[in-house]
Amino acid sequence: MRDSLLIARVGVLLGLMMAFIVGSHFLLNETLHSFFSSNSTQLHGVAAAILVFSGLATDVVLPVPSSVISVWAYVSQGLGLGFVVVWAGMMTACVLGYLLGAGAGRSVSQKFIKSDDLDLARQLFNRFGSLALVLCRAVPVLAEASIICAGIAGMPLRRFLFISALANAGIALAYGVATTWAVANASFGLVFFASVSLPLTAVAIYKLIPKTMNTENSLVSRDEQLLPSFSMQFSYPLCFTRNVFDPKNVTLVNELHRNKAVGSLIKVQIFIDDGVVAAHPNLQQAIQTYCRTHHIEWSGEIISVPGAEAAKSQQQIERMHGCMLQAQLDRQSYVIAIGGGGVLDAVGYAASTFHRGIRLVRMPTTVLAQNDAGVGVKNGINSQGIKNLLGCFAVPHAIINDAVFLESLSQRDFRSGFAEAIKVALIRDARFYQWIDENAEALNQRNETACNYLIKRCAELHINQICNGGDPFEMGSARPLDYGHWSAHKLESLTGHELSHGEAVALGMALDAQYAVEAALLPQHTANQIIGLIQRLGFEVWHPALNWNCASGESALLKGLEEFRQHLGGELCITLLTGIGKTLEANHIDTEGLLRARDKLKNFAPVTESEVSG
User: Does this model's pTM top 0.85?
Assistant: First the structure.
């Protein structure tokens, strides 16, 4: 059925394209020919070039008959100038499409290109990479969709421009040769043939590609394959509140009843970070009162989970699964996870793998969890000495940030979340970075207004990247939200998690900022400002583990780079700064330059408590 609809759709598209092209030739032939071929004034030639350029440049967002325009460009301008005008117009359209995809993302791009066409172009892009631009460039609709997908996928701009320039030159030259030959023979029929031959040939080749990919040795022919396809719309609320278990606060109960029939039984099981249990001795009684008031079925037993990375082990997951089984949870039940990022990671992984996934409500209790770790769609545990080696993507039912939980945090745990705020500001929001810089003292003093804004804005930027960045489940190689993280994960493992996640990320950002200087991407004074802000918020930018070697004598830091490459799926992709709020994705790291950057971090004076406290 799907193939029949696709064939019908392509047929209608080709029919309309043919009708448009034929109509433009027969209805506008005399007018266009007299206008384009007139040499009475230079203005006609300039106007024709401007019209051709404008038409081709807007082809990415408007239904422009680009083949007709390209042919008439050569009729009016000749081979040399016509080639320049056509190529320039096509390149402008490519740049506009790339920027549209990179800046607006998939949701806005769908206003110009159908979702199915974007999906098809994205499949080609994921399968063939850069070659997809060449394959799609002459195919109607896919030509526009492919360049938008390149922007959404975060293809490096230099590579995109280089490949697009070559592909467009080939297409422009093909039109030029065909049209010049037709004009030389003074044949309207040949001109008509030139304008339709390239797009029709491209469509025909594109339709034949799947057939050629089935070799004679294939065990299953295309006729014997099924191609199921479906999509789902995900959404999850992020709520900000205080005293979530006050019976008068209906935030939690409202979320538990969301998408449930009136009168449905609400059954929950609650896992809590043992540090939170110790810091809030009255929490169990408060939860019991809340559940009784709002008719929520709960056993009354709090299941304590070790905090931080200690929660992220296979033994803890098996223990949680046992508790869920004993409580007879089913796929209509809820698991509520209360704790820091490590506990949320582990409980989320356990919930997503029990009965193939049951509903999860997260209640982050640290700054880092409320503004980063707890607001995404990832869950995971550590294994084989590698952080987050095992994990999954699972969208939570809801996230509830209760500011009261933050009041019991130590200064070290509280500031740990500042690192993620600096990170997302550096890669996505220069104004937010400036705000952090200007309010560093207030943040160190734990000013409630300043800290609430930092948490909310940081969470908002993370969610925007997840929902609108075009890759919520990280199928591609780009990981902009992992800026500074490739080395951070390694440093956490090397130190046996003596370094907290926030402290390791601060070190990683300082290292990557200084490396960007070594790679001539970032001015030294900008790196100094970044490192200075990191230090003013209480973080160190040097740790002896940066200098440690493996048993083989290899730098442990460089081994971490290789482990990150393997985690990405083969191609290294490291986010680097070119300015505040400006980034690029690097596919190669100069190891000598990286080690120079590491060594230069020693030159930055360590932070004292008096400097942090102001």
Answer: no
